[in-house]
Design goal:
The protein folds into three domains: 2-147 and 337-347, ATPase, nucleotide binding domain (Nucleotidyltransferase, domain 5); 158-327, Nucleotidyltransferase, domain 5 (2-Layer Sandwich), CATH 3.30.420.40; 367-562, Carbamoyltransferase, C-terminal domain (DHBP synthase), CATH 3.90.870.20. The chain contains 19 helices and 21 strands. The chain is an alpha/beta fold.
């Protein structure tokens, strides 16, 4: 069967399953060049079909997610979500009715779907699909949290496990606990959208003058720079409690902001971030504890936007009640297309063979397109006999190299296909990247990519590498921190990518060269973009960002471009 999953909300996109395998998965932002795109994923659908060499009438099922009243209204009136998108991303001023609009938005998104909203959503999505040739396919609507849960459970590699989804909200819920066994997902607890850990952290992010749904990682990073505050003196801990697998908040999400603002007034920004981060960690641990108790399963599969908080998921991983944890790589709403497709395939009886170790599931480009992009910019390129060795030599000299190879990564992390690389042991390179090339806040740490064989030596809590793609925090051994000084947070943790030693791709070869040249198979790896822009997709975009960023070299396909002077 050929099953197309789509999502037309925050971080919209599409994913294609064919014969139970993931053929293509891509988010719309990479094609429209609008960060965390909200538009219907027309370009992503076209890219999936083109890469799989399919026509629209060959698709059997289209699986779309979410049919609550707020989502349905956005489908009927796209201008409403465009206005919110512009304000949230600081592209437009809020206006005189901003406070009322914000409160209405949070109140409406708490409403659960009903027969009317489901019928309207189905009709609107079907109409848009028909305009793009997809009228033959059956359209199914998949519950928001079920899509998250299906993605986590059915890509985890666990035969059976507890499944925990923790999100802002969707389809009237903010979190769920399910059992996965004998190939079936069974929900055992659900938290109402009015009580949301994700919305709590959204409000904190916005009060810190950052962009909600985008800058929560900055809040987590800022928290590391606060003087620790005892839990007994943390006023935010009373905002969230978990009972029998269900989240309860002191105020509903739409009314929480004023109470949070009163706490913020009493604390410096970094302390407020610390209090909020500790609150999220406590809530996540309580949910995980209840998930183990309610399901009888000590292995957990996690998805949902809150799961991107790697400090919270690390706290869950280290709990004595928990045997193992898997985090779905594209845990936020951008992963809903694949989750919806996976669930639709399972319901249809399609055998699934899905592995998420490799996420180069996006657009690929040939050498002529690379040559054309380099030539159009007036750049000169050479073709080294051994590109990974040449790039490793540049990195050894302290230079920064942009790396464009193979298919684009699926999800929010650069994983050696659209990456910016540097040595991991040079603090001055970290500062140069932050302040000059990436143009982002100084306190947000970069991540390491390393060969798996390095992990036991470098990480004190290495657990075997189920989470291979920067979805989990690990503690760096104190006596090895000099090797990872540019990719270690002030609290001693890092968020690594683990590359298999037997991988024969160019990125793994580069890591082996790094071991030969400076003693450890590790590089600093950050996303190939200017901060606030999407990851680059095409050769033309790669060249543009290279020119604008001031990086020292660009390795694209077999070609190497070095900056003059």
């Amino acid at each position: 069967m050929k099953i197309l999953g789509i999502w037309d909300g925050h971080d919209s996109g599409a994913a294609l399953l064919q014969d139970g395998r993931v053929r293509v998965a891509i988010n719309e932002e990479r094609l429209t060049r609008r960060k965390l795109e909200i538009a219907f994923p027309v370009l992503s659908i076209a890219a999936c079909l083109a890469q799989a060499n399919l026509t629209p009438d060959e698709i059997d099922i289209v699986a779309a997610s979410t049919s609550d009243p707020a989502k349905t209204l956005g489908r009927l009136w796209p201008g409403s979500k465009e206005r919110y998108y512009a304000v949230r991303r600081r592209k437009a001023f809020p206006g005189v009715g901003a406070r009322a609009t914000r409160a209405l938005k949070y109140r409406m998104t708490e409403w659960a779907p009903g027969p009317i909203s489901m019928r309207i959503s189905h009709a609107v999505v079907a109409r848009v699909l028909a305009r793009h040739g997809l009228s033959r396919a059956s359209l199914v609507l998949v519950d928001h949290h079920r899509a998250h849960a299906a993605a986590a459970a059915r890509t985890s590699g666990f035969d059976e496990c507890a499944v925990l989804t923790v999100d802002g909200l969707g389809d009237g819920l903010s979190a769920t606990i399910s059992t996965f066994e004998r190939g079936q997902l069974t929900r055992v607890a659900a938290s109402p959208a009015r009580s949301s850990i994700g919305v709590f952290f959204e409000h904190v992010t916005n009060l810190l003058n950052m962009r909600e749904l985008e800058d929560e990682g900055k809040v987590m990073a800022l928290a590391d720079y606060a003087a620790p505050i005892e839990d007994g003196r943390n006023p935010l801990l009373s905002f969230i409690r978990v009972e029998n697998g269900i989240v309860h908040t002191a105020q509903p999400g739409h009314a929480m902001r004023p109470a949070l603002a009163r706490v913020h007034w009493q604390f410096a920004n970094e302390q407020f971030a610390y209090l909020a981060q500790r609150t999220v960690e406590h809530a996540m641990m309580a949910l995980a504890r209840d998930a183990v108790r309610l399901t009888g399963k000590r292995r957990l599969a996690l998805a949902g936007g809150v799961v991107s908080n790697v400090k919270a998921t690390r706290a869950v991983r280290l709990m004595p009640e928990v045997e193992d944890v898997f985090v779905f790589p594209h845990m936020g709403d951008g992963g809903l297309p694949l989750g919806a497709a996976i669930d639709a395939a399972a319901v249809a009886g399609e055998p699934l063979q899905i592995e998420m170790d490799r996420l180069d599931l996006g657009s690929r480009y040939d050498e002529p397109s690379m040559t054309a992009a380099i030539g159009a910019a007036g750049l000169r390129a050479c073709r080294p006999d051994d590109l990974p060795a040449t790039v490793a030599s540049l990195l050894e000299q302290g230079r920064i190299v942009m790396w464009f190879q193979g298919g684009m990564e699926y999800g929010p992390r650069a994983l050696g296909h659209r990456s910016v690389l540097a040595r991991p042991d040079r603090m001055q390179l970290r500062d140069r990247l932050n302040l000059v090339l990436k143009r982002r806040v100084w306190y947000q740490p970069f991540c390491p990519s390393l060969l798996e064989s390095e992990a036991p030596r470098l990480l004190s809590d290495w657990d075997g590498g189920r989470n291979r793609v920067m979805t989990m925090a690990y503690q760096v051994r104190e006596d090895e921190r000099c090797r990872l000084s540019a990719v270690t947070s002030v609290d001693g943790t890092c968020r690594p990518q683990f590359v298999r030693d037997d991988d024969d791709g160019p990125f793994a070869r580069l890591l082996r060269e790094a071991r030969r040249q400076w003693g450890s198979a590790v590089v600093l790896n950050t996303s190939y973009n200017i901060h606030g822009e999407p990851l680059v997709c095409s050769p033309r975009e790669a060249v543009d960002v290279f020119i604008r960023s001031g990086a020292d070299a660009l390795a694209m396909g077999p070609f190497l471009v070095e900056r003059d002077g």
